[in-house]
Specification:
Strand 2 and strand 3 form a beta hairpin. The protein has one domain: Sandwich (Immunoglobulin-like), CATH 2.60.40.10. By secondary structure, it is mostly beta strands. The protein starts with 5 loop residues before the first strand and ends with a strand.
Length: about 110
């Protein structure tokens, strides 16, 4: 899900079992393409059941890349492949629709 200033990021566990016995948690990193900067946006090293995070404070129209690192008793994994998203921008320059008629079952607009 995407809004003008947020992205909802969800990932899957690589553990073979449903109980996440081997994974102790995850970290989510964000790469800001415009600023060429990587930031830790979620640190869940001790929460293996949280596989999602809503990243807030993003700039509309900017591209962001995300990677996930898993943790277990041996340390951290290699980062996942980066997935890149562009934050949604609200449409601009569009005419506002005008209601021209209504009935009990319909509404008619014009632009």
């Amino acid at each position: 899900m995407c809004t003008e200033n947020s992205l909802y990021i969800k990932w899957e566990s690589d553990d073979e079992d449903d109980e996440n016995e081997n994974t102790s948690g995850y970290q989510l990193f964000m790469y800001d393409v415009k600023q060429d900067k990587t930031t830790l946006v979620y640190d869940g090293q001790s929460n293996p059941n949280k596989l999602e995070f809503n990243v807030l404070g993003l700039t509309p129209g900017n591209q962001y890349g995300f990677t996930v690192v898993a943790f277990n008793f041996n340390g951290q994994s290699e980062p996942s492949e980066m997935t890149t998203y562009t934050v949604c921008s609200a449409p601009s320059g569009q005419m506002v629709p005008i209601v021209t008629s209504t009935t009990a079952t319909s509404i008619t607009f014009k632009w």
